[in-house]
């Protein structure tokens, strides 16, 4: 706790002032967490002092906020390039990185419990932009991902510890292993079964399963299925473990699924219910093709920043001949006129040789 206080004061995070009148004063709270190594042993005890922002009002105390985070695809892209080029991976930690942001709003917070500072300090200007870095050595564990290497330089990324912790949380540590995440052609009805007395636990487990798909594309469809029951989960939903045309009996919407490879390494994948019902399999496949092309276009924008140049246009493999014909045929078909945006999005990229079907 003292280390946290020292870091906050060193960065000039706050200035002590008398309590102003007619101002919203937010509270403060200490949050504690045990940081562990990949084998589960204790790495260190961590304390963070946070402001209780839930007492603030939108438009009065703050405007719209967001926190940029790295996409899973970007992380897998870096790891894939490292494996292909036999690069060594290291990791650095910026101490108290969140303190280096600029806060434009004026926020008043009560002093943390136990503070004995009574003097009013002046605001310190022109703080040096010095980052205290810690070299954490070879990359072996970060963001819940375990990274291991073999003698040839190949990289294996997994979430063994995360999965074991999740099983323990769900009370399934002694459960039997299953060959597949869910039964083939499994149909889920939203209103089937008795409603759960406390749906919070179900939502917590499903949310944790979503992060497990970081390294397990084979779980994506099963996790996508149980995610659709978050609003009103039942006992049946809790025990549930390529494009599927009209596979959802509740809405008759299709499911888009794709996997993007860089070399032999999967770097992006998705299993997601489409936004509207499709009248035939060609229409469903074309919507899936447009989503895949959009994700591929984003990855192509990231690669130049990493100094990576693709020698040939990427190839998308699709098993629907009608969809392939629509993508290359210059004639606009009346039967897909309601797919105008997706139709032109894919065709433009094919004509510009940005991708090959």
Sum up the structure in keywords.
357 residues, alpha+beta
Can you put this structure into words, describing what you see?
Pfam families: RVT_2. This is Reverse transcriptase Ty1/copia-type domain-containing protein. It comes from Prunus dulcis (Almond). This protein has about 350 residues and is an alpha+beta fold. The chain has a domain at about 1-70 and about 95-130. The protein is about 30% helix and about 15% strand. The protein has helices at about 1-10, 70-85, 160-170, 200-210, 220-225, 235-240, 280-300, 320-330, 340-350; strands at about 25, 30-35, 40-50, 90-95, 110, 135-140, 140, 145-150, 155-160, 255-260, 265-275. The strands form five sheets. Strands 7-8-9 form a three-stranded antiparallel sheet. It is globular and about 70 Å long. Mean pLDDT is about 75; it is low at about 120-130 and about 240-250.
Fold blueprint:
Blueprint: H1 2-10, E1 25-26, E2 28-36, E3 42-51, H2 72-85, E4 90-94, E5 108-109, E6 133-138, E7 141-142, E8 145-149, E9 155-158, H3 160-170, H4 199-212, H5 220-227, H6 235-238, E10 255-262, E11 265-273, H7 281-302, H8 321-328, H9 340-351
Helix pairs in contact: 3-4, 4-5, 7-9
Characterize this entry briefly:
This is Reverse transcriptase Ty1/copia-type domain-containing protein. 29% of the residues lie in helices and 17% in strands.
